[in-house]
Amino acid sequence: MKKIKVIVAKPGLDGHDRGAKVIARALRDAGFEVIYTGIRQTPEDIAVIAQEEDADVIAMSLLSGAHNTLFPKVVELLKEKGLGDRLVVGGGVIPESDIPFLKEKGIKEIFTPGSKTEELINFIKENVKCDEE
Amino acid sequence: MKNNPEFIINGILSGDRSVLARGITIVENDLNGAEEIISKIEEKTGNAFILGITGPPGAGKSTFTSSFVTELRKQNLKIGIIAVDPSSPFTGGAVLGDRIRMRVHTKDENVFMRSLGSRGALGGLSLKTSRIVSLMDAFGMDVIIVETVGVGQSETEISKTADMTAVILAPGFGDDIQALKAGILEIADIFVVNKSDLAGADKLELELKQTLKLNYTDTSIPVIKCCSTRDDDFENVYSEIKKRVDYFKKEKILDERRLNRKRRDIYDLIKSEIEKITEEKIKKLGGIDSILNMTDGKVYLTEELKNLVKM
Ligand SMILES: Nc1nc2c(ncn2[C@@H]2O[C@H](COP(=O)(O)OP(=O)(O)O)[C@@H](O)[C@H]2O)c(=O)[nH]1
Ligand SMILES: [Mg+2]
Prior knowledge:
By secondary structure, chain A is an alpha/beta fold. Chain A is 41% helix and 18% strand.
């Protein structure tokens, strides 16, 4: 059976990746194949990595506050590469009031600091489109 | 994205990166269409040179690969990279992190990198790696680098996919040559002593050369010392490897390797088919438990069971 492949990416300028690494490991323990990109990735980098890895899910984490530009940019670049069908989710310090905008831009779910990794894992399992044929 | 073989084949031959990526997913997971894609793509392969890079974790394989690719890009060569990392045998999950070291090449359209979890695939990993190599080859890569961790049996096994294998060592990561995993030294066509900026690199180089002198008839195996976190040494690294490649071509070692690879791949292919037949057979006989019932819980081949298996 095909494994679910998840890119864990940190766009933006903040240099803390402890949270992202914890998420990467939790996803691995849930049986996913995780590609960790490292910190300070541009939306272009993330889209190329998702493309080459043929990822099912792109999970981005951001603390620096630039989510309203960076997250939608990744979605747009994915579409350009013919990857508009991939599941994109975001996490980090994101105000409630920004969430409707982000969802409208194609980020399927936002996980704020209080949320548990199980919520992310379940969300992925329920929403991923892993066309296996 | 569409998975139909014709779409995938055309996409790969016309240079569509997203389609190459999907083709790789199909052969990696043995999805519908994999055999058709491979059968049609085979005739477009044979151009790429396949370099295996292996060694202990932390020796600097990914860092070396990145700097080497920078040098290859100066020659305007198109590069494929396959980075194989171990998956958890329990969950099948994996964190594949080699991309972090290769980030300078991410935006380069002439470099295509793919991570691969070893997944504990029984015997199938080298075959799958070969097939991914074939797709990249047909896509037009000139050099394909396969990075594997030199720890387990399956990892050294994949090195046989390569035309040539470089074993990377570094002080502090296998400076005790005697303790190095048996088998990892034997597969080397080239040795790289990495982290030449660290104390202990000279000693490692010396010990390695002595070991080679004592144990090998092929004294032509080069030992290249370098520092992978800088680019300075890589002109030399390139020319040493190039010399070795020319030698392999001249002595027809390359042709022999490729024939051996085909032999092994078709063997593995048959083995994995038989594995599928085994699963079906067990299902047909009512499952493992009812088979155990047949033998009164003992693990041996009764005449009855033998006949049922052959049927
Ligand atoms: N000092 C020094 N460190 C290096 C060199 N090459 C790699 N490293 C470091 O060694 C660590 C492991 O490198 P990596 O390429 O991931 O090793 P791999 O596990 O063999 O792929 C990293 O922190 C690198 O920065 C080198 O030539 N000199
Ligand atoms: Mg590595």
